[in-house]
Amino acid sequence: MRRQAPQATSFEAIAIALVIALAPVTMVRAADCPRQGTLGTSRVLAVDAVSYPRVGLKSFPQTLPLGDHEVVLTFDDGPSPPTTGKVLAALAQECVRATFFLIGRSAFDQPDLAKRIAAEGHTIGHHSWTHPSLMRISKAAAFDQIDRGIAAIEKVLHGTAATTPSTPFFRFPGFESTPATLDFLQSRGIAVFGADLWASDWNPMTPQRELRLLTDRLAVARKGIILLHDPKGHTAAMLPAFLRYLRDNGYHIVHVVPTGPAVDFDGVP
Fold first, then answer.
1. 229 catalytic, yes or no?
2. Band of residue 64 on the pLDDT scale cut at 50, 70, 90
3. What does the alpha-carbon distance between residue 85 and residue 250 come to, in Å, rounded to a whole number?
4. Contact 111, 79 (CB under 8 A)
5. 0.90 surpassed by pTM
């Protein structure tokens, strides 16, 4: 049963109305976790892709409007059994929701796993069809990689191979964008996600080494969009300890969702 919110004073009501009117994202409190002592998901940000077309300080001058000790967890390159399942289990244990940037071909090959990610409440973004460098192929081939990846995931999740994504979030493989591909995505109303910090988990390492790298970097950054890779075995093994670290050190999970499906420049879905 949902608790009834206390009545706000006139001053509080005015302040809340101003925040809602001026904020480029919608902030929603996440649902309570049924288990005590878990990290949980603190709030939801519904991102306006027009106001936030490109986010992540590793690639762009702007990032999401996160407060101190707020983090967004993102995972690239899945779905991939059995590691993605282990990542999902760790997130579920702590009632945490994340964003998964899926490779279209992998989602096509593992449709049940892609559907599971969505069914467990995580946001699904797009990461091209086969994960090539989009700055080292022709413009036409890069556009095709974007569209084929989107269409594959839409087919798996919604039954129709549409190139207009229900979740208009995209991350470039290797963060390798070009002016043409950035303009292409912006013209489609698709937000581009970079990252603010990462564990460098594309390199071979032990889970203990990865945890140390990630926590040391987070101690400096104090907040941000975190990049991880769910197909990596050491990341799946490290994740439960990292979630405990976040819980024990006062960090808060923010779940990112879109304000709506992609639209083109003319505002037509």
1. yes
2. very high
3. 26
4. no
5. no
